[in-house]
């Protein structure tokens, strides 16, 4: 007698959860979400954008995407303007400068309507982070552009940027939106095959590939910015305001002008600040006979190498790198030899950067104690001085690059 195989009961499950229909529904859902993500990335949803202040930055677990930042640029920069993107760290972001007194706003006023200044600086970022990536992605769409970043003397520049903001680089790199550069490709291979990092490689590459298909980062960023936020942080308000959309979070940057000198240069940390200042160039330089300082030969070779490779060669001429000084309050406490060494480090870095084709300048030589709000960050009055100096350099670059025809 023939027997037939029994069919497992479905226990009344709806048809959509049975067999292939489940996977059909899953695929349709992913396609729908991908469409929403792509739609989210097409337009700017930061109508009053000034900068990525802490509540809308990675410090609060909000990671701007490349397309999100490109949309910010497109909404503000006309095709007939020279695009000026500000990258770099908290000094250029404008810490101790309220949004209406930011140095980059003064820079826009100085440059006028022929230029469009966008501030994408991030706290703790390096020159090749964030804003540098977006500028490169927009290189064809905005061929007349200048990128600005900052760094301390005797410091290297690295093609992949810092770890904190590297997700922005990976996104653009693995989506094929950056220039193909032999040196940078080698840095990427070394990074992903290093024994300390190899376990992260599938996540880095896989996440970039999945996001290229599904656009979940753009979708979630827009949802949390416009509808509701679910990620607690030191910079988000306490519940229930925590769940408010991030567009309602405000830029609470205080005004450094309101601080007394003792508040700017706290007595309790002055000794530590002096150690940091003295340590800037102490390991990079050796005294020479007859007086003066000389960068150590091995370090000079290393810096030459990373300066050449930090940006693709075709982008060097349109990149302005600023080398800053710490507050004169602390610099006046250096010995004559220490001050000479510090100045030599600043001079050498500017000279070396220019030798590699970058525009480079230093600032702070004529700044006063009142121009700073702490050892490194500028109060609004110092920001105005910086903007005036940078505006002159930007105009000179624009003329040299033939942008003003």
Summarize the structure.
The chain is of the alpha/beta class. Helices cover about 40% and strands about 10% of the residues.
Overview of this protein structure:
The structure is a single chain. This protein has 405 residues and is α/β, with parallel strands linked by helices. The chain has one domain (43-400). 42% of the residues lie in helices and 8% in strands. The chain is built from 15 helices and seven strands. Strands 2-1-3-6-7 form a five-stranded parallel beta sheet, sandwiched between helices. It has a two-stranded antiparallel sheet with strand order 4-5. The longest helix is centred in the N-terminal third of the chain and has 23 residues, at 20-42. The radius of gyration is 25 Å and the shape is globular. The model has no long low-confidence stretch (mean pLDDT 91).
**Shape, per Cα inertia axes:** globular
Strand order, biggest sheet?
A: 2-1-3-6-7
Radius of gyration: 25 Å
Give the terminus-to-terminus CA distance.
Answer: 93 Å
Q: Which regions are unreliable across 5 or more consecutive residues at pLDDT < 50?
A: none
What is the number of domains?
Answer: 1
Give the structural class: alpha/beta
Number of helices: 15
In total, the number of strands is: 7
The average pLDDT is 91
Instruction: Please describe the biggest sheet, giving its number of strands, its sense, and whether it closes into a barrel.
Output: 5 strands, parallel
- The topology string of helices and strands comes to HHEHHEHEHHHHHHEEHEHHEH
Amount of helix: 40-55%
């Amino acid at each position: 007698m023939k027997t037939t195989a029994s069919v497992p009961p479905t226990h009344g499950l709806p048809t959509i959860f049975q067999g292939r229909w489940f996977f059909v529904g899953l695929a349709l859902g992913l396609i729908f979400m991908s469409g929403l993500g792509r739609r989210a990335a097409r337009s700017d949803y930061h109508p009053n954008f000034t900068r990525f202040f802490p509540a809308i930055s990675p410090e609060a677990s909000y990671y701007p995407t490349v397309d999100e930042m490109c949309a910010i640029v497109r909404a503000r920069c006309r095709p007939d303007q020279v695009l000026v993107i500000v990258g770099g760290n908290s000094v250029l972001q404008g810490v101790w400068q309220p949004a209406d007194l930011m140095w980059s706003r003064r820079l826009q006023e100085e440059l006028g309507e022929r230029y469009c200044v966008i501030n994408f600086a991030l706290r703790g970022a390096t020159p090749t982070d964030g804003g540098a990536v977006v500028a490169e992605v927009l290189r064809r769409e905005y061929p007349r552009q200048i990128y600005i970043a900052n760094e301390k003397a005797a410091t290297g520049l690295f093609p992949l940027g810092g770890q904190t903001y590297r997700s922005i680089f990976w996104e653009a790199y693995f989506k094929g939106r950056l220039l193909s550069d032999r040196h940078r490709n080698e840095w990427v291979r070394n990074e992903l095959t290093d024994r300390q990092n190899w376990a992260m490689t599938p996540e880095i590459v896989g996440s970039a590939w999945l996001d290229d298909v599904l656009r979940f980062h753009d979708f979630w960023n827009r949802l949390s910015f416009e509808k509701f936020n679910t990620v607690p942080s030191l910079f988000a308000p306490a519940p229930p305001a925590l769940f408010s959309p991030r567009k309602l979070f405000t830029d609470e940057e205080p005004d450094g002008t309101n601080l007394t000198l003792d508040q700017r240069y706290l007595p309790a940390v002055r000794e530590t600040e002096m150690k940091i200042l003295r340590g800037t160039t102490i390991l990079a330089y050796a005294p020479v006979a007859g007086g003066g300082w000389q960068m150590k030969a091995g370090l000079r070779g290393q810096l030459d190498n990373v300066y050449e490779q930090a940006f693709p060669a075709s982008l060097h001429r349109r990149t302005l790198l600023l080398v800053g000084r710490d507050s004169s309050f602390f610099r006046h406490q250096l010995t004559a030899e220490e001050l000479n060494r510090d100045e030599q480090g600043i001079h050498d870095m500017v000279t070396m950067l220019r030798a590699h084709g970058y525009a480079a300048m230093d600032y702070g030589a004529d700044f006063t104690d009142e121009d700073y709000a702490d050892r490194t960050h500028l109060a609004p009055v110092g920001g105005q001085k910086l903007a005036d100096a940078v505006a002159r350099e930007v105009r000179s670059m624009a003329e040299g690059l033939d942008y003003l025809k």
